[in-house]
Each structure stands twice: as C-alpha cells, then as structure tokens.
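so the lab meeting is tmrw and i was supposed to have these ready like two days ago... anyway. pasting both below. for each one the top line is the aa sequence and the line under it is the structure tokens. i havent really looked at them closely yet so no promises
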Amino acid sequence: MSLFDYADPASFVSRLRRRRSAHLRIIIEQIYPCRILDVGGEAQYWINAFGVGWLRERLVHVTLLNHTTEYVGADLDPSVFCVVVADGCALPYPARSFDLVHSNSVIEHVGCRVRRIAFVRELRRVGRWFYLQTPARCFPLEAHTRFPLFQYLPSAARVWLFQHCRLGTYPKLSAERARAFDQELQLLTARELAGLFPAVTIRRERLCGLTKSYMVYGVC
C-alpha cells in the first residue's frame, strides 16, 4: 500500500481525505437531492470519499469541470457524473445553476491573484453553496511534490528539482514544463485565503498539530 496513492482507498492520503470530507458530507446531507459542480474535479475523489452508492442514494449528480479530460476519470456512471472542459475562472453557467460548487486543491494552480479573485467569484456566482479546500503553505511537507519546504525554495531551485527528480506524481520535466509548473504551483497563506473570502470562517485541517490545509464553505 502506498502512503500517497489517492487511487487506493486504504492509503494514508485517502483516509485523510475522507476525514476532511466529513464537513462536505454534512452539507450534502442538508441539501440533497442536489447538483454539484466540481471545479477542477476528478471522479476518483468522489468515489473514494463517498462511494457511488452513497451518491446515488442521495440523488447527487456531479459535473466534473476541468481544463482537460486527462484527469477526470473514465467509464463514469452517467447517472452520477458528467464531464465538462472549461476554465474555472470563467464558468459557462448562469448564476445559481448548481446547489453546491466544490473545489479541492485547485485554487493554488489557477495563477496570479487576479485569476484567484475571478475563480472565487465564479464559484460563488454559479452555486447556492460553496466548498473550497487548499493545502496550507505553512505545512512543512509540500502537498504536491511531497518535498520538504519545497514552497520556500528559490524558483531556480524548484525548477532544477522538477527537471532532475521525480516529485510526488510528477515525472522529470523538461526545462519549459518545469518553469511552467513552478509558476503554476502557488500555495496560499491563511491571510491570502481570508482576503479572498472576507467574513467567512477558515477551518484548518491539522496533522500532528500542524495546519495541513484550509477549508472554507457556506452559503453563497
């Protein structure tokens, strides 16, 4: 069993994800049957955290919206999932189209602060409820690369590591892709997240007493 294999329901990271998803489960129990938009979503997340049977019983339908179909999953149950390719910062839906808009570990990939603001605005525009999770910048083991304090290294060092090491699920990258990934991966601090969600309580997921990730959720 791999500690960091999200495809394995018994792995350490999958168990952490299920524990964290308890907050989301409470929201769904309040509002089902419901239509959920998962921005940057993958089917395996929902299958491992909730199970297809649980989702079917509650008449939950999840639209998996991503910039590519590469990660969302294959052979999906159409009664539970559908796939849409679009930009999470410019969602192709009218206001209040979904009961819940969900985002797990995505906002740290969308780019500059202007795009982050647009991302949050769109989440709250098209949903009645929202739920967003993002890894904490302060946690010593960077969540994507699984390299200690990776987020605090100079950009040149991060690019070099992307090129010469297998980091997390990333293979060794070309110089161009390494620079692109380095620019893309920007973890948020609690203060930065609070600036995007004023007057919303930020909840902290803790591991060994340290803040591992942040969650914000509520009524749009």
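ok protien two:
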Amino acid sequence: MLKFLILLVFLVGSSLVLTEAFSLEVEIQKESDRIKESLGWLDPGKVSYQEQIQLVIDRSDSKNRISIGMMSKNPNDIRFPDYLEDITSEPKIVSLVITNQFGCAPNQYDQACVIIDLEREGLGDSLEEITKNSLEITDNIVGAGVLLYAPDHYSTLVKPKTNHNAEKILVSRVTYTINEQSTKSMFYAISSMTLSSDIITSGGFYDHAKELSMNNFSAFSISLIPLKDGSILRTLQVSLICSDKLPEYVRCPENVTEEIERGNISPLDFLQVENISKSNLFGDEFVPLNSIIQVLVFSDQDLQVKNVNSNLIERLYNVGDVQDSGWFFESLDGVLIDGRYLFGEEHSVNKNNLAFSVGPYSDDDTVKVNSEDSGGCLIATAAFGSELAPQVQLLREIRDNTVLQTESGTSFMMGFNQFYYSFSPVIADYERENPTFKEAVKLTLTPLLTSLTLLQYVDIDSESEMLGYGIGIILLNIGMYFVAPAVLITKIRSFYKLQ
C-alpha cells in the first residue's frame, strides 16, 4: 500500500465575524524506505507552527476580506497566560476569543470583546438559568481581567455554531466588553507577549500581518480552542474588509475591484506586494501544508475556474501530490470557488503565479494552466503586472491559437523558447525592481503587440501561410525596431553635418 496523505482541516473561530482560519496537519503512513526511494517522494517534516492567508471575495456586493493568521497547538510557539491555558480543565468551553472586530458587541461600537462559547447542554432550561450557570464558568476565567483588560459582562445568548470538528452544536455565548484598542496596539502588545521570538524574527506571513495591523480599519483577534486530545489550538489573526462601494469600509487597492469584476483574481494585489515567502522558521524542511493561501469567491451566479497561472493540483491523496507548488481547488465551480495555494518544496511565490481567473459556468470544465513552465511570457508579464493582463493574454492567444497550430509554428516556438528563456528571467526580475525600466520595456513592447494583432485578422490554414505571415511579421518588426531608427539616426546626423 502506498503512502497516504490524511488532510485534517480545523475550522477555527465562531459563526460571528471572526476570520475562518484553519489548520492543516499531515500524517504520513510509511510502508518502506524502498518504496519511498523508488517513488522519489520527500518525507514531510513536522513543525507545529502554521501560517495562513485567507482572501474572501464576495462578488454579489463587491465586499472583500483578507485575513492573515498564525496558529499552533504547541505552547512553545504561542503561549497565553496560565489562567487562559487552563481552560482545558473546564470541559464545557468550546472556544475563547478576544477581538476588536467592529460590532462584536451590538450597539457597543466603541468596545472590543471577549467571547466565550460553552456547550449548551447541561446549563439549564431557561435563559436566566443558562446565564447564571454560564457566568459561573466564564467569570472564573476572565473575571479578574484578561490580557491587561478589565471585562464587563455584556450578554449571554444561545446560538448555533459549527465547531472545529465540523459538527453543528448549540452553544451558550457569553460576551464581555473591554476597552477598545487599535489593531496596531493590540497586535504589537499581544504578539510580543504570546508569540515565540523565533516566529517574530522569522518573517513569512507574520511580517504581512504586522503590516496589515497598521491599517486603521483592520481588526485583530486571538482565539483558544480546546481540542479533544487535551491540547489547545491557539491563533492570532489580523483581518481587513475593503469595498469600493460602501463608504464605511476602507477602499480596496487601486484596480483590485475592477479586476475582480472581470474575473481576475490576484491575491497579492490586496497586500500590494510582488512576492510572498514562507516563514524562515521552516528552514529547508518540506512542510507543504504549513503555509497556505486560501481564496474563497462567493457569487450570486454559478462561476467556474477558467485559468490558473501555476500548477493545478487535482487531488490530495498521497505525498507526491504536494511535492510541487500549485493550486488545489476544493470547489472549481458553483456559487462558491474554494482554492488553496500550496508551496510544495518552494519557499516563495510571486503574484503572477498566484493569479487565476473565473468566469460564468459552462459545460467545458477544463482549467487552462498558464504556468511559466508552459511558456509564459516573463518580460511582458512583469511589464504589464499580471499573467491576466490583456496584453499578455493577447500574446498567449496568438501563441496557442495561431502559431502552435502548425508544425512550422511549433518548431519556431521550440527554438525561440530556448533563446528567450536564456535571458528573460533576468530582465523580468529587473523590471520588478526598477519601475522606470519597467515603463521603458512596456513602451518598447507596444509596436510588437500592434504588429502581432495583424495575425488575428488573417486566416492561416496551411504551413506555407504560417511561414509567409510569420516571416512578414518578423520583417515588419525588424523594420520598426532597427531599420526605422537607423534611417532616423542617419537623417539626424546628416542634418547636423549640414549645419
């Protein structure tokens, strides 16, 4: 029997407005070193600390939420004061959350909250009895103060909830209010108090959470969830809601909403960064599920994933499935698209490889993979900012739908790719580092793109036609890029000589 990958998903938080962080753990069932070696699979390491970025896109009301979470079951990674760590001694506690999320206590918009969920069963029959019995438990935990805050009881309600085991239960939710602090203040104070120095100094998603916490509209939350094995799942999360249509929310970064409406999803545009790396805490260990970027796209109409700019992982069944980086989609179509980017053996990913597109549902369920390995145009992608930019799409469509449809075109592309990829990565990297150079390249590419559009208006039905039009386009570009400038320079020199 081959090695099996068992994927455990822990949904963290409540049915409130907290970010839906999740923890992924891998257990590998080994058969023998011989099979491992013959299949070429790596052994996943075991690191308790996990990091996650979650992007929730709601196309029905143009509202988006990005959250960044750090989580662990190991107290050496995240350690809360003993009176909070001792919540495992009370079996009725389902979760404890501290958050400054806006509206966490209705009608108390200038307050943050401590929210404790208890199992409803056994707390009494009437709301009065449930409140009394619930407070006897929760006051023992936070009554004297919690993380430098003095809580006041606000409400006790009976609510349905889905716990971390995906079970639907009834809980008694006890909410306390505390003095509201800015996300920046809470993040710096609580992270320095609870996170290990290794996590803080190892970068990764933590650095982006710190940057997000400086936004005046962001929210901060911590949660402790007792697990059946006696451990506690601990999380710290920073989240931000943005919208271009509702004035009470901060506006999304420029062009993000417009691109989403077109179906183009670029997660790193929300963080306004070109690349993202995993925590250095992982070192060189192969921990493919300890860093996850999740994207959820909600819509009022059925959607479908059309293109991805990296590897598409079709299943999570064995270790071999997570050796390479790429997108794994729990749901490729419907009113909910649920995708998770796995780093595999890679330490970082750029925003172009993270991009994918969605469109209206159709019977064709083929997802087009546009990875760099399959011949992506690196220079144009860096110049125009995305694999999904119209100019890059034009180059790809001409390559796939015109040039590669003939043997001569295929032979040309094979030779061209060997030449092109010998220097294009260096130029693309320099474009990302130098905005002026990037604009110069963009300007230089414009005549080429204009000439290539001619191929969209002709019918190429034979090898001779492909050769004819191809040679014609090449000569046209030689004329624009070399002959015309040479003639212009000669004219200018002649003019100055006459002077």
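from a quick look at the 2nd one: The two ends are 87 Å apart (CA to CA). The mean pLDDT is 80. will dig more after coffe
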